[in-house]
Amino acid sequence: MLFSIVVSGVAIGCVYALIGIAYNVMFSASRVFSFTAGTLGMAGGILGALFILKLGLPVWAGFLLALAGGAVLGVVTEILAVRPVLKSLDQHLYVLSTLALALIVQQFAAIEWGTDAQPFPRLLNLERSSFDQTFWLPMLACAITIVGLEMLYRRTLLGHAFLAIAEDNYAARALGLPERNLRMASFALAGVIGALSGFAGGQMLLANFDIATQLTFYGFVPVALGGMGNNRGAVIAGLVLGLFQQAANFLVGGVFSSVAVFVAFILVLLARPEGLAGVALGRRV
Amino acid sequence: MDMSTTGIRPARASFLSSPAVSTALPWLGLAIIGSTLPLWAGGYWGVIATRACIYWVLVAGLNLLVGFAGQLAIGWVALLTLGAYITAVLTAGQAVPALDPYLALAISAVAGAVFGVVVGLPALRLRTFYFAITTLGFATIVRQIALAWSTVTGGGVGVAGPVFPEPFDSQWGFYYLCLIFAAICTWMTINIAGSRFGRALTAIRDAEVAAEASGIAKPRLLMAVFVFSGATAAVAGGLFASLQSYITPDAFTTELSVLFFIGVLIGGRGSIIGPLLGTILLTVLPEFAAPLVAWSTFLYAVLLLAIVLTMPGGIAELIDFKNRRPLQTNRAIVPRPELLKRLLAEDQEPGTLTLEQVELHFGGVRAIDGLDLTIVPGQVHGLIGPNGSGKTTTLNVISGYYIPQNGRAVLRGAVLTQLAHHRRAHMRIARTFQTPRIVGEASVLENVMIGGTIDGTGTFFESLLALPRHWKDEKKLRETATLALSAVGLEQLAHVRADRLQHSELRFVEIARALMLRPAFLLLDEPAAGLSADEIRRLGTLVVAMAKNGAGVLLVEHHADLIFDICDLVTVLNLGKKLAAGTPAEIRSHREVVSAYLGG
To answer: How many CB pairs under 8 A join A and B?
Structure first.
């Protein structure tokens, strides 16, 4: 039992961590937290099931198309909900615009896909085991994402440009970096990561429109606790969250595990609003 | 006074365009439609109108929270759920002995007030998006508990809603009950909106730092609003349970929560009539497009996105005809310093504001490095120096935005550096800001009245019910604010939306707001920046007159001429250290100052 708690906990924690990373990638490029983070995960699941089960495409094609769908969603978010309100960040209009867009996408999915959870295909033709692909696929996806992002940020010019934008937007623009294109690229990247989490975790979460709200919330927990923009913090906090939630699930049951996670989240945030690994905000006047 | 130099063109004396009538008309229309509805509308519309009334009971309270205080509580359906279940369970007589429905409704209101604070508490610590997410999480949790706690709530099967006794048991009877509640909530929120509490809320939303400098204690005020919004949402829940006649957790979706939230935003921030019309619109809209019912939340979301991107002011801005009239373009600011006598108290306690050996560093940077400074009542003290020399930082230490690592600021024996930000206003220390901090959607007069918030005597509760002290406070604040506006020369613009003013005028609005505190000490942060030569001269006269009337002024400025004209003493900062101090004449001939800063 301990084994299954740990395995399922780490697996779901990896999904949360990936959504958290999607939040972070968007935040780094724009200083905006987007409510669409969870819908990216939802889109990965639904698009995967749509392409592979409904349209009968091979797994690799469904995979690539689902990721492409996520990228498109990310770019649409940037164009529709982020770029127009960037000028007035202090008015927090982005909270409303990204919420509106997340609802639009989610409602569209609910109407066109249906409100019931639908099955997600088994991706690999392997025997079922206690350490099943249901669980190790999200872990693999998370590991690949972390390594990939590290390589991107450290080894490539594009990655350096992303970092420059995140570090100091004005200075980066003054250096002549194409800030707008980089921002769109970041949102596309976040879309791919979000869709990857939904696709890799699809066998666990199913193709379900309702998952969007949950992922938006549980995916933000690692961001808040790990410190905004801090991917390593997000992964650690995501894993802890997943394990905590699954343990509570087994020990005290579904509802109380939700309550436990929520209460723990609030208490930690109240104690440390900047997150466990974050730093306090700067000047106000 | 000559109209052409001082103000806007006089309004045409038409009955319909007089401000009082044009604001009252929509209300009158709504009241007539609402009260006569059974005479001309069918029963089906009665149900929809009842629902609109119930939604408004919730949205009215939420409006203070979202539209006025700017707290993005997107999961407020949690409190509707709570109120609905408490009222239903207490009257159903299954889990507990059946109670009278009104008593049950009252109990749920109390519970709603308590939980409103519980949900709201994180708002004091967390930033916008964090708070929005926590309310969303709370809504999910409450719904899950309603589903799981089946011995009390009936779980997925649900529980019967309350039935209110005669004469409210019929369909139209219940409609009138809800209408009465809606009317009461409207009245109470109008009272708050027009009180110092309502203005303080908008100040917290748009100009938090200025709110603190005016002595507004954010935690207490927000808690009062969370109590009120929680209670009204729970009452709405009780009525909702009765309207549904049977409630299950499925009735309380995130979509419903979003509907409330969008109702406020479509209506427009800082307005009552706007969100009311928004709520009616959102309730009625799906009825006109029956095939689109499944798409309703989708459409709300599209509407929200469209509003945010194209018309952040919402319906309220759309129907605000008064502020469309063009302002006169060549208006001038003509201060009347002789009025200051009536604003600045002559009973000011003596005592100087002293900085002693203040040191403040950010990491390795020494922003202030052992500064001694004394501000004497009745004198203008100039603080000059190159950019980054620590002028504004010094102001911020006095205002409490920075805590110095060493040294202290003392006033009348009290160590300022140990007080909370907003306590400085109570010590009669007022300030202005480098970039004016103004509530753009409020009128100029309302902005100035914000400065006098701490001088009100009535409580939030008294304002809610418009008890006598509320009126007394309002009258006094209005009079003082009008006087302050006249003193700085802006009384002609009193009723104009503040965001329509020119930058230079906003600087004078800030001074008027600072004057509302009857300041013993006034900290002015580059008040002349962006002013014309004429305006700078008038500003100088005004500042000198403030000092003559007993105020100690600390003036941070770059305009050397102004400093040397009006200051009694000048301190020159460089790299956080005092480079020189003395009379303007001494400073002007100080060799180091001339070479480091003045040039020449």
So the answer is: 111
Give the ipTM of the model, two decimals please.
0.89
pLDDT for res A87: 81
| pLDDT averaged per 10 residues, chain B (length 600) | 41 54 84 89 89 97 94 92 95 86 96 94 82 88 88 88 89 94 96 95 92 92 96 97 92 86 88 93 81 80 88 82 80 87 74 88 85 91 88 90 88 81 88 93 94 92 94 95 94 91 94 94 93 93 92 91 92 88 88 73
Check residue A278 and give its pLDDT: 57
B433:A285 CB<8 A: yes
Smallest Cα distance from B346 to chain A, Å = 31
> How many CB atoms lie under 10 A from the CB of residue A142?
27
From residue B330, alpha-carbon distances to B6, B445, B491, B512, B539 in Å are 9, 21, 16, 21, 18
Pick from B91, B87, B92, B89: which is nearest to B110 by CA?
A: B87
**Contact B298/A108, CB-based, under 8 Å?**
yes
Four-residue CA torsion sign, A137, A244, A17, B261: positive
* Chain B environment of A266 (Cβ under 8 Å): 122, 134
Residue type, B238: G
| Domains observed in chain B | 21-323 (1.10.3470), 337-598 (3.40.50.300)
The CA distance from B291 to B312, in Å, is 29
Domains of chain A in start order, with CATH, are 2-120+132-271 (1.10.3470)
The answer, yes or no, to whether the previous bond of B167 is cis (omega within 30 of 0) is yes
Nearest-angstrom CA–CA distance, A65 and A80: 22
Using the beta-carbon criterion (under 8 Å), do B140 and A213 form an inter-chain contact? yes
pLDDT at B49: 95
Tokens linked to B50: 């009842």
Which helix (H) or strand (E) segment holds residue B411: the answer is strand B406-411
What pTM was computed for the model? Answer: 0.89
**Whole-number Å distance between alpha carbons of B24 and B11:** 18
Report how far residue B434's alpha carbon sits from residue B329's, in angstroms, rounded to the nearest whole number: 25
Cβ of B298 and A107 within 8 Å? yes
Interchain contact, A103 vs B301, CB within 8 Å: yes
Q: A240 and A277 in contact (C-beta within 8 Å)?
A: no
Contact B113, B230 (CB under 8 A): yes
| Contact A269/B at CB under 8 A | yes
| Cα dihedral value B25, B30, B31, B33, nearest 10 | 120
**Interior angle at CA B432, CA B429 and CA B436, nearest 5:** 155
A44 CA: distance to closest CA in chain B (Å): 20
Give the model's pLDDT for residue B6: 41
* Of the candidates B437, B419, B430, the residue with the CA atom closest to the CA atom of residue B205: B437
For B52-55, the CB contacts below 8 A with 24+ separation are B52/B279, B52/B280, B52/B283, B52/B284, B53/B175, B53/B178, B53/B179, B53/B181, B53/B182, B53/B239, B54/B178, B54/B181, B54/B182, B54/B236, B54/B239, B54/B240, B54/B243, B55/B236, B55/B259, B55/B260, B55/B263, B55/B279, B55/B282, B55/B283
Residues of chain A with pLDDT under 50: 281-282
Interface test with A, best of B71, B118, B129 (most A CBs within 10 A): B129
For residues B50 and B16, what is the distance between their CA atoms, to the nearest angstrom? 31
Q: Chain centroid to CA A97: how far?
A: 18
Residue B233: which residues within 8 A CB-CB, separation 6 or more? B57, B58, B61, B62, B76, B79, B80, B82, B83, B112, B116
With beta carbons less than 8 A apart as the criterion, state whether B597 and B385 touch: yes
CA dihedral B573, B579, B583, B589 (to 10 degrees): -120
Strands B380-384 and B569-574: parallel
Asked if A216's CB is within 8 angstroms of B141's CB, the reply is no
